[in-house]
Specification:
The complex is a heterodimer of chains A (235) and B (119). Chain A is of the alpha+beta class. In chain A, 36% of the residues lie in helices and 13% in strands. Chain A is elongated. Chain B has 119 residues and is an all-alpha fold. The longest helix of chain B is centred in the first third of the chain and has 35 residues. The chains are: A alpha+beta (235), B mainly alpha (119).
Chain lengths: 235, 119
Amino acid sequence: MDVSIWRGGDDGEYQTYQVPRLESQTVLDVVTYIQRELDPSLSYRFACRVGVCGSCAMTVNGKARWTCRTHVSKVAEGGQLTLDPLNSMPRVKDLVVDMETFFNKWADAKGSFKGDKTRDDALADISPDDPKRKISSAGIECIGCGACYATCDVIKWNPDYLGPAALNRAWTLVNDERDVTGLERLAAVAGDNGCLGCHSQQGCVERCPKSLNPTGAIAGLKRETIKAVLKGELS
Amino acid sequence: MSASALRTETYLWLAQRLSALILTICITVHIATMIIAVQGGLSSEEIIARIGGSKIWLCFYLVFVSSVAVHAPIGLKSIMREMTQIPMKRIDFLSILFSLIIGVLGIRAAFGLYGLGGA
């Protein structure tokens, strides 16, 4: 099997390797084979190998995927694989990107939980069937792999856009009754660089390996931020 | 970002959606009228006979044109922002200019047609 891999940073080039085709072979297996057997200078990221950590996301034949959970048989068109680093993030080397901006946007979107209880207070009593808890739970499984961010066209057009992962995270917290950030978070995710920038193209939904729905989360943020603006709460 | 900028962006976003809502109705009426009324070829006499002098049609087209003058420039603003390197201040200026051109030409045309018909 021919495998073309982007080597270097922005001014790099593709290098092609011959890799033996094996049964039940994942794309991560292919990259690991190349690094261990053919070219130890190849840089890439992985940790868990089983779809838990989210660190092995790359562009496989043009689409952002977790390489550990992508079987070669499902994606190798004509026995050919082309691997690039994730889009919309600065390239460090080969298949490794700098995810600092991606995670900073989570912070910009007030993506961290802030409660007002101490360890001496009773636990919050929230039923799993509570409607807001259900909305929150629907988006909580994001592991920050960046596949949605790398797929989103709006980020390519407007690098200041917060992106689907950060906005999805914010939406889970907007619906978390224990969180007290409230309007501060809505102000952080409002406007054209926030939820209103989304064109609802749903590339993030299409490519999310966890089958989450960031577009739906962003639509929820649109409703809540607009309500807050109309009530004069974000001034 | 300042609260006033957030408010402006939010109101523009809302204005674009609300004008789209009006436009779906206007465009449906517009296209349905074209299909139903224009059976024997399009002629200016026939259009003037139907629309000219009618206050209802005048109101309809004033609403239609106003909605376009609100809707299209906001969309154009997003396109210019995302697809070009034009600075934001110039994009705002061009969008307002585009809105004025559409609005003035459209309203002038609606009144022009109104004035051509009737007794």
